[in-house]
Amino acid sequence: MELTLNHFLFVSGILFAIGLSGVLLRRNLIVIFMCLELMLAAANLTLVAFSRFNLQDGQPDYDGHVLLFFIITVAAAEVAVGLAIIVALFRNRETTDVTKINSMKF
Amino acid sequence: MDLYTLAWAILLLPLLVAAAILLGLKRWSGLSSLVSTGSALFTLVMSIILAAGELAPDAEKLSFPWLMLDGGNKGDFTVNIGLSLDKLSTGMMLIVTLVGFLVHLFSLAYMKDDRGKARYFAGLSLFMFSMTGIVLADNFVMMFIFWELVGVSSFILIGHWYDKESAADAAKKAFLTNRIGDFGFMIGILLVWVLTGSIYFEEIKEAVGGVANLTLLNIAMICVFCGAIGKSAQLPLHVWLPDAMEGPTPVSALIHAATMVAAGVFMLARVSFIIDITELAAQVIYTIGAVTALVAALMALQQNDIKRILAYSTLSQLGYMVMAQGIGGEGSAAGMFHLYTHAFFKALLFLGAGAVIYACHHRQDIWDMGGLRKKMPITFWTFAIGTAALIAVPFTSGFWSKEVILETALHEGKMLPYVCGMIVAFLTPFYMTRLVIVAFTGKSRTEDSDHAKEVGPIMWIPLVILAFMAIFSAYSFIAGPFRAMDQADPGHLFGHIGLTAILSLVGLIVGVGAAVFLYKGKDKDPISIPIFRDKFYIDEIYTGLIRVCQDAVASFLDIADRFIVDPLVVRAPAMGALMAGSFLRVFQIGNVQAYAFMFGAAIIALIFFLIL
Description:
- The complex is a heterodimer of chains A (106) and B (612).
- With 106 residues, chain A is mainly alpha-helical.
- Chain A has a domain at 27-100: Helix Hairpins (Orthogonal Bundle).
- Helix content of chain A is 73%, strand content 4%.
- Chain A has three helices and two strands; from the N terminus they run H-H-E-E-H.
- Chain A has a two-stranded antiparallel ribbon.
- In chain A, helix 1 packs antiparallel against helix 2 and helix 2 (29-53) packs antiparallel against helix 3 (63-93).
- Chain B is built from 27 helices and two strands.
- Chain B starts with a helix and ends with a helix.
- By secondary structure, chain B is mostly helical.
- The radius of gyration of chain B is 30 Å and the shape is globular.
- In chain B, helix 8 (214-231) runs parallel beside helix 13 (279-300), helix 15 packs antiparallel against helix 21 (457-472) and helix 17 (377-390) runs parallel beside helix 21.
- Chain B has helices at 3-23, 29-52, 87-110, 117-136, 140-158, 165-196, 201-207, 214-231, 240-243, 249-258, 263-270, 272-275, 279-300, 306-326, 331-359, 372-375, 377-390, 397-411, 415-440, 447-450, 457-472, 476-482, 490-494, 499-519, 530-533, 538-584, 592-610, and strands at residues 63-69, 77-82.
- The interface between A and B is medium-sized, with 13 and 11 residues.
């Protein structure tokens, strides 16, 4: 079976859905955070797939690749900040359960 | 030197002086006053040169654009600041600068110890600049600009002693009353522009004959006349002038007797070619002038403040001049002639009153004076000469100019102005004689007047010069250079001593006789006519009217504010914000995952509605 663009999009869609449902449903902050990364990975996969299958004069369009690297870089930075926030939060509240972090409400 | 350059110098020098004083010189008040007086002397000398010089017919007219507007049906519209040098303006310049210089000189002594001396002289210089602008303007818009500027300088000078409440109020009243007239003036200028397509006097003069819509031209002329009603204090806008006497007395002499209030008459003389063809407007003009002359003379009968008597007599004489502008024929020139003689003898009377007030430690009630003839002989005799000119004693300047106006009115068959003018000729000698007898003869009634001394030479020299002018200014050896009027030679009048001359002589004798009979040796006013003393209650009527109108407007605005502005503009947005807030805070549930869900759902909804 030959791999087509649709296969890649299908996989990335599943990944994104898993990530989104994780973010919306899980309670542990760390897991939510990982699910966020999963969504980013799904987006990255889409970019690479489109880039690979969008041939111009027999060459892939490398714009998608370039954007991908930017996303990875930003994601790394975001992880650093995010984890730091989680550590700080845990030190204060001694919990990572998001349902218990709900004092900012009307 | 080119005459136009000279005229520009006359115009701009006082402005420079005023600016210099206000920007820096005011720290040295003595120097400021000297600089200001020097500039007045300089402009006087230059005006004499200007009046003596003959303008070359092909002289390049120097003017520069002030305001340029594009478009419109009539093409581009440009307002130039340009000067017009003719018989009317150069003659008027001489009057303005001569009286102006003498008043500056008098002020040097009168305002010697005043705290705001530098400010006062800056105001005087600013006034000289503005008045010069009116006189030399060659178009309506420029005249209007300077018209407003004299209003401002008059405001500054009336309110010179602004810490006195009555002075501040009087300044405000003068300014506001003038604004009413000026608004009409502005509409008039626009109408004239619409009708003739020009704002330049020369072009209007050529175009005005071809105006088809005479009704509109009449309306335009009446609107223009509104400006003169305000500035020359004619009924019904006369109320500001008596109150303007709160200003320093030299200011009253210069602005509120000799020059600024005459600007209205001057302006009417400038546009006399329009009045000649607008019959209705001419009727309005001479009626208002005649009624003002009569009513003001009646009011003057019962006043006790020396300056107010003179103020009402100024109103009355201005009425004469305005009336003369409307009667047609030689009336316009006759009115200008009276303006010219009146400027000198009324400035003389005011400066004389200033000297008296100065000597009596700022007492102004004539019943507080008395017996000043012996103590202040120079002031008395010059004041008496001024009075003689005002009440038209034969062979004084006032006699000739008044006769010309009345003769012209009779000649043109305008009976209303003639009758009113004749009655005034009976009243004026009466109230002026009353003033002189009460203030200068008899015994001193207060300590202040008992201690009065003759004023110094800086004050009496202007009085003497003006007294000379008050007698002789009508004769051709003086009137010639002033280019006041060609036909005003005494011989012209001697030719036909008729009804007018006899009647006014009778008026003079009866008026003076009655006043002497009634007031000689009296310490109190033997007659009391409340309606004249209270100025026909016009001020009270205005105050009441304004109060009623103001209350009506205020209560209307109150209702509008309470029931329209408050609910719609104030409370409705507040309610909106409140409701939006209480709706939106429902979503603030504190759960980060719920926020993420709403965020995602909203993005999906956005994509759905915007892209699909």
